[in-house]
Amino acid sequence: xxxxxxxxxxxxxxxxxxxxxxxxxxxxxxxxxxxxxxxxxxxxxxxxxxxxxxxxxxxxxxxxxxxxxxxxxxxxxxxxxxxxxxxxxxxxxxxxxxxxxxxxxxxxxxxxxxxxxxxxxxxxxxxxxxxxxxxxxxxxxxxxxxxxxxxxxxxxxxxxxxxxxxxxxxxxxxxxxxxxxxxxxxxxxxxxxxxxxxxxxxxxxxxxxxxxxxxxxxxxxxxxxxxxxxxxxxxxxxxxxxxxxxxxxxxxxxxxxxxxxxxxxxxxxxxxxxxxxxxxxxxxxxxxxxxxxxxxxxxxxxxxxxxxxxxxxxxxxxxxxxxxxxxxxxxxxxxxxxxxxxxxxxxxxxxxxxxxxxxxxxxxxxxxxxxxxxxxxxxxxxx
Amino acid sequence: xxxxxxxxxxxxxxxxxxxxxxxxxxxxxxxxxxxxxxxxxxxxxxxxxxxxxxxxxxxxxxxxxxxxxxxxxxxxxxxxxxxxxxxxxxxxxxxxxxxxxxxxxxxxxxxxxxxxxxxxxxxxxxxxxxxxxxxxxxxxxxxxxxxxxxxxxxxxxxxxxxxxxxxxxxxxxxxxxxxxxxxxxxxxxxxxxxxxxxxxxxxxxxxxxxxxxxxxxxxxxxxxxxxxxxxxxxxxxxxxxxxxxxxxxxxxxxxxxxxxxxxxxxxxxxxxxxxxxxxxxxxxxxxxxxxxxxxxxxxxxxxxxxxxxxxxxxxxxxxxxxxxxxxxxxxxxxxxxxxxxxxxxxxxxxxxxxxxxxxxxxxxxxxxxxxxxxxxxxxxxxxxxxxxxxxxxxxxxxxxxxxxxxxxxxxxxxxxxxxxxxxxxxxxxxxxxxxxxxxxxxxxxxxxxxxxxxxxxxxxxxxxxxxxxxxxxxxxxxxxxxxxxxxxxxxxxxxxxxxxxxxxxxxxxxxxxxxxxxxxxxxxxxxxxx
Lengths: 383, 530
Description:
Chain A is mainly alpha-helical. Chain A has 15 helices and 4 strands. The longest helix of chain A is centred in the middle third of the chain and has 31 residues, at 205-235.
């Protein structure tokens, strides 16, 4: 394989991996939406807040790194999608800005807005933020209205290369039902992950009992939304391109075909689905089972990874334009230069190091589960 | 046909300036305070003296509040390159994206993973592991600064790249040149070390408040001692790196230097303005005196910029007219081209690019080669193709001049500040009651440190105008095609949200300081929690 093509595939794999990690780690967001439902007393809320609070930055950082890595490896996506679907991304950003202060400020005296505002921030992040990320990822399957014309740079009056073809700048994504289904599926998946994480991380019967219930309650809508999205997308046409001349065309069952033509994808996808279902099943069936979180996490990672790989591999347009299909982005026409991808490939070797020290720190901190007596003595509960 | 409006560009610039300046309210304290609390914890680790643990914990609490809002204001800066500067993201993404991604992989994970251990791990991990986590958080913060400053330095002094007319973007050719660019190295040390100054002033200021209130004296005096030694070292290094950055700016961004000094007509033996009041009537094309009043030091600017009293320093009009001998950062002599020549050359480059693309679509390889040659020859002036009038090449002199001089004067003030603090409080048994006035000075100096730090960035970034990438891409060709109303809306939303969060941040910090009871904390060792 040509080195450049190899690196473009390698970097799409890393982007997919980061996306998969991000969705897996969004259990934090899901957990945030369960704060009041599962934490009925102050001390229970405190346990949940502190349990999630030791992890939120990792999810947040993964989002930031996902953005940075996308910028470095496929900058045309960065300039086209962020500058075009402006409002969609702005909603997502606002929901993460308010999350970043919520944990630290919520229970501190002098926080100016009151505890409930910061709780609302966590809800906004957990519902609106996650839903909109789902919608944004949905457009990578369903397409977005944009045009890329590199020659525009020579027009001194309007030199912008990537332009959006609707005045709604991202809000039109909410009109495609498939995007909404993915958004909704993510919200409920995050809540399942959040509940399983809390079962694993908190030692409090009352909390754990409500988490079990929460897993059951959220599973039904999750399955409905997720399966409708996957089946619909697999049965829809998708944008592919001819590797010889770059001509973009609509291909029947494109994403399903990708899964079959690259059989490891369908294997990953199915194994992932089975792991998630296993985690849910064990939580429901086996009393006192607390390790479902790890199976769920592994399952989500595999499913998202396989779907993202199906988006970019096998001559597929990972960000199709539905107003100007020839402008669609592929891993070939949107990537950085060979040299940059190569430099960044060396940098990417740090990722396993990050995962290893992340794991060590996580284990050191989570050796003992969080329990009420951890916070027993401090009346006002401040640092 | 659509046309770019200057209002869209101005609002997008306003939003970037707003979010960057808000972000910078929190970053220098993170950078400075993290080192100070790491030092305090190291003393605790070495001596086993519990007082130092409590001192560390106190500063760590304030660090945590500040850190959270730093993260909140930081995320927008990364994504804003895409949302508001779409053309920029494509045009230089091949180079600029890399340090941003490396920042995330190398620094942000380090910070986020180990700060959780640092905040909540006191009773969960060993003393050694905890100290390591604290230092790793500190190193993570500085590494993050390193990579983003490399990216910023590249915008001021683009190196290690080549324009590719096929892909219509600049492509990286030499990563080492980008990372080890003299501008990047200088910027990193100047920015990070000046943040240590701010962190030290903050620690001294808060400690002085305790002294004024006659509370927590042990914490205050110990903290002042650490911070004034650290601060004195930091301000000396800041002045040193500031001096070398002036020398670099003179070569890579002479227009910025001219604006910093309000210098229109340059000269050999050029004086430096210690301080002055600009004449608001002065334009580059009238004969008014640039200053209403000024104190100048003979030969100062020539020495600062070129280390030679007789060296010629170009002013704004010299740069517009060109024709004098100048020097690159590598020491090569060249004749400064005039702005008109540069604009002409830029237009040649842009037309050659259009010609190249036309020839390519027709499959005419002879023409492609011909146009590519013209393009390459004129590429250093590419950005000037978008300039219609020479006045566009002059940054807002008043903002840059006042920001620069405010920074320098405050820098000198803080040198004195740390010396006095060290003389008074560095002694064995200082008597804070005798020096009450000095405690007030310490407390009141906190905002001055912020003004100094922000002024530095205003000098660097406003002085760079109209360029996003020096000489290669102006702001008005870097933009996303949005409606002005959209950008206005997000501008106000950011302003309101960040202002509210800033108020919350300040109130929380004040309350945390007020409720600190150092003696009581000796008997209570509870688990940290949100």
